[in-house]
Amino acid sequence: AQAIIEALEIYYPNQVTTKMVDFFVEYAPPPFDLAPATYAQMGQVPELWKLGYKLSDGKRRSKFIQEVLWPYIRKSTANLLKEHPCDLFLSVHPIVNTPILHALEEIPIPYMIVITDMVTTHAFWYSKRANLTLTPTEEARERGLEFGLNPDKIKVVGQPIADQFRRPSASKNELRKKFGWPEDLPVVLMVSGGEGMGPIEETVRAVDGAGLDLMMVVIAGRNQSLKQNLEDAVLQTPNEVLGFVENMPDLMNAADIIVTKAGPGTISEAFVAGLPIILYSRMPGQEDGNIDYVVDKGSGVWAPRPMDVVETLRLWLEDPSERQRVAAVSKSLSRPDASMDIAGEIIKIVNNPQI
Q1: Fewest CB within a 10 Å sphere: which of 49, 61, 62, 154?
Q2: What is the pTM of this model?
Q3: Is the omega angle on the peptide bond into residue 31 within 30 degrees of 0, that is, cis?
Q4: pLDDT tens column, 36-58
């Protein structure tokens, strides 16, 4: 959502006023108000997450669940609409779509959905009543068509990402000098996600034990325990350990390879940065399709075990031409203008709400 707001401010200054609202934290009744806080915890029990994801997916099942929940969240949804009068509602979360659209049935306010799951998109994302649905991939659009959406009301634009990815602040060499990274070693950016999820510590130790000729830059996110463990570790490989960062565009543009969980945002950012991708972890169900997408397109590999990561790194270090080939494929999949294009669609609807 922040990337979309940023694009509106940059490319359509003073044309709209935006307000980002977290429905779960600010309006949802218990236990739904705990949803954001429990996401990272669910990463520790992936099979339970997969079960819930699969059981709630599908046309009939999702409709039944929404009908059961509606009486419970009706008041919360009404409060949201009352406290935030607007010319357009834009959703970046699947669960809120049906209840808000239900509440909007008698209120002529357009509703737009920006799908932020890459391939394995949940049924909750799709509603025929939305004025426009924007997807990150053709695969996500095709699923919307299977749910009966009007082809004219669902478009592929890409994943919204920070504008700095399309306009790097400096050259790769300049960024490496700024960070104090060596110019003669490949730099591997190892990302655990904002919440520090996945077996990143085991992977770091495996790469270190392999004695590969590289530098590791590890993003521990908000996981302070992980950050401390890695900082305290006696590693032989040149490394830098960071916590939660806000300069990911610069870090990616300065790196040579990325090792990350299969989150759609990081994958899309890696495409724009032209990085070969090693995926080592995923949220089952939700992110399975992301792995298939990366592997099938040839922009990276699936390496669920630490030694799989090591062997891929070894291959790419021994054969730089292969690494460069994968990097080129990754770059070819990028949609650097996604946030700008989404902002443009917002302006169209605001100026012509009958669209």
Answers
A1: 61
A2: 0.92
A3: yes
A4: 666 667 767 778 878 888 889 98
